Amino acid sequence: MAPVLPLVLPLQPRIRLAQGLWLLSWLLALAGGLALLCSGHLLAQLWQLGTFLAPSCPFAALPQVALAAGGVALGTGLVGAGASRASLDAAQYPPWRKVLGPLLVVGTAGGGGLLVLALVLALALPGSLDTGLEEGLGTALAHYKDTEVPGHCHAKRLLDELQLRHHCCGRHGYKDWFGIQWVSSRYLDPNDQDVLDRLQSNVEGLYLIDGVPFSCCNPHSPRPCLQSRLSEPHAHPLFDPRQPNLNLWAHGCHGVLLGHLQGLAGTLGGALAVTFLLQILALLGLRYLQTALEGLGGVIDREGETQGYLFPSGLKDMLKTAWRQGGVAHRPAPEEAPPEEAPPKGGLPEA
């Protein structure tokens, strides 16, 4: 049975392969560490912004899978660096012979599978952010006024911190605040005629104003913050309502958060792609080094040529061998079957 993808390795190529694998394994460990950092940072950002994402948004699965894939890649790189270095010394290599086999299985099946899954998620899930942020920010704006409602007491503080930290206002712009009641009814004067008129003029009995919370104001604006009567052209001297960006944050929080999280996901996807490529190269090299050394009894500097390969036989032969060695009961071949006993001859014995 011929091995799959055999490669003849004389003495010097074997040594250069081990040295190159030592460097490649450290690069894999660094790439795995980078993937861990990127996925951890994205996970921390999602933990902070979880209030503004819909509970059904599956985007949080990306950093979780990437965290596991980065950890496996980091471990594969560290163990691969130790094994490739030990292979250069016949006295240090024997303990590593038992490690390389499980490492190749775990790195290929576990690490490779996690990396492929993480890459697929990095390509597919960022599109779900649009809908998740749309729904989550809409809910956050609607509960801005509910400062005394259990479960929504911190909605106002969190949304104010979001707008101040990310320099955004509303969901898609400052006018989003015009369509919701963001002032708690507790702070409305029931004897004020303007308040009564606004409540009665709304079908749902909401107090709607053409104003925004203080967190929408741009502190870099040269004039004091203008929060109310933003639709009236002559309400404020030298203020043009058609150019509110001179006073308020220019962008909505949906676009700002979408760009921020998709940028982090893109960086993580790039780190995962580099890690995946390095892991494939490192595992292939370690497999060739392992099989080459097995042919030399674990001594890399023994004179002569040896052969490295991926599999000891073709796929068909491997499946046939596995079937023969499986749990199927072995039936004897025709030539192995015991001969049948001849029936006794009829008739009486002769006298």
Description:
This is Peripherin-2. One of its GO terms (cellular component) is photoreceptor outer segment membrane. By secondary structure, the protein is mainly α. Helix content is 52%, strand content 2%. The protein is built from eight helices and two strands. It has helices at residues 11-48, 61-86, 94-124, 128-142, 155-166, 193-201, 253-294, 315-324, and strands spanning 7-9, 306-308. The protein starts with 6 loop residues before the first strand and ends in a 27-residue tail after the last helix. The relative contact order is 0.17.
Separation of the first and last Cα atoms? 65 Å
What's the helix count?
8
Please state roughly what percent of the residues sit in beta strands, choosing from under 5%, 5-15%, 15-25%, 25-35%, 35-45% or over 45%.
Answer: under 5%
Largest sheet: 2 strands, antiparallel
Helix content: 40-55%
Identify the notable features of this structure and list them briefly.
8 helices, mainly alpha, 2 domains, 2% strand, two-stranded antiparallel ribbon, 351 residues, sensory transduction
Describe the SSE topology.
Layout: E1 7-9, H1 11-48, H2 61-86, H3 94-124, H4 128-142, H5 155-166, H6 193-201, H7 253-294, E2 306-308, H8 315-324
Antiparallel strand pairs: 1-2
In short:
It is found in: Membrane; Photoreceptor inner segment. This protein is mainly α and 351 residues long.
